[in-house]
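Structure (tokenized):
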């Protein structure tokens, strides 16, 4: 006998509906199967990538450490080389020198202490002494201190430049006086207009420049050098006896410049220090790296 199966009877077997599949699988089985499928590739990826992540730092860490060591030692060598090298004067000293000229004469005092060597007491005493002189004799004197001259050959040229810049006309500068002290060169200058020079006299001007300013500046007594010069000029203007000035011992000034032998000795020490630091900066990291590699 032939058994005839209808299409409706076969459709559930050949083409199962989604609703039937959902009913055949319990809810408890569905999350469990999903978790199994997801966990397998996740555990495999960890096994594949963990050896690489662990081996990578072991190769790069020594190289990074050696690189930092080389950079640190090189920076130390450069820093010490700059500290031991002779100081070069840059544009700061030049700008300060011209600032004194461009700013003009002081308005509320008689002092421009650009070298910053005068005390408050000295400035106060100068103001009292010179203001009294101006009120009585109509003569105005300015005192200037600078550290170093770079644009002019000596203090006299600089003093003349200041006088011409501050008081450009004869009427303005006739009764004006300028006293300059250069601390690094241990020298000074006194200049002024015709009325000032006539009131002081050539002898006192020369004596002040050759005695008060350089002798006391050599001993680094800058306050005494300025104030004694002011009193000597005022005494000459008032017609009083000359108080005099200090003298050089043995009539010989000490030189501030180093001899050729001292310069060569310092240069040799400097070269030796820099060379040793450069050797340390390159040889020590290489030796440490060789010791690290040989241990492996």
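Design, position by position:
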């Amino acid at each position: 006998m032939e058994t005839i199966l209808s299409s409706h009877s076969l459709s559930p077997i050949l083409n199962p509906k989604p609703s039937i599949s959902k009913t055949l699988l319990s809810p408890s089985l569905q999350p469990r199967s999903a978790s199994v499928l997801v966990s397998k590739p996740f555990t495999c990826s960890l096994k594949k990538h963990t050896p690489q992540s662990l081996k990578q730092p072991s190769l790069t860490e020594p190289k990074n450490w050696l690189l930092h060591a080389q950079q640190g030692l090189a920076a130390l060598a450069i820093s010490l080389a700059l500290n031991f090298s002779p100081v070069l004067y840059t544009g700061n000293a030049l700008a300060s020198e011209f600032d004194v000229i461009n700013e003009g004469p002081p308005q509320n005092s008689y002092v421009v202490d650009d070298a910053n060597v005068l005390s408050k007491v000295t400035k106060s005493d100068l103001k009292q002494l010179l203001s009294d002189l101006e009120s009585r004799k109509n003569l105005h004197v300015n005192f200037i201190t600078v550290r170093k001259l770079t644009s002019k050959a000596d203090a006299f040229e600089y003093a003349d430049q200041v006088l011409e810049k501050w008081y450009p006309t004869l009427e303005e500068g006739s009764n004006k006086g300028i006293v300059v002290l250069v601390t690094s060169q241990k020298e000074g200058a006194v200049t002024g207009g015709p009325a000032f020079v006539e009131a002081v006299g050539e002898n006192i001007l020369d004596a002040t420049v050759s005695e008060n300013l350089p002798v006391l500046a050599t001993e680094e007594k800058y306050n005494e050098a300025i104030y004694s010069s002011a009193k000597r000029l005022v005494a000459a203007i008032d017609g009083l006896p000359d108080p005099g000035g200090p003298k050089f011992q043995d009539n010989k000034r000490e030189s501030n410049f180093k001899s050729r032998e001292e310069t060569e000795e310092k240069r040799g020490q400097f070269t030796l220090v820099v060379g040793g630091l450069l050797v340390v900066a390159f040889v020590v990291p290489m030796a440490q790296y060789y010791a690290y590699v040989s241990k492996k």
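Reviewer-requested clarification: The mean pLDDT is 74. The beta strands are 111-113, 140-146, 176-182, 187-192.
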